[in-house]
Amino acid sequence: MFTVDAQMPGVFYRRPSPDADPFIEPGSVVRQGQTLGLIEVMKTFNEVKADRACRVSRVLLDDGDEVDVGQTMFEVDES
After folding, report:
1. pLDDT beneath 50, residues of the chain
2. Contacts of 27 by beta carbon, 8 Å cutoff, 6+ apart
3. CA–CA gap between residue 74 and residue 6 (Å, rounded)
């Protein structure tokens, strides 16, 4: 198992807009570079991208959760 950790502090979002589907769900298989979520910092949205192809095991944050640098956001397994 690997983790995807926050590279910056801010507010985490699982979806691109309030009425859109989440970028990923537990069990999703993602490719390297695919967007997993967003972190908002001072009204700027920064994409959180997968650094490898993997399967998402757990999403540890909900929309609107505060996130700190180094905080684990996702648990992933090799795909």
Report:
1. none
2. 55, 56
3. 9
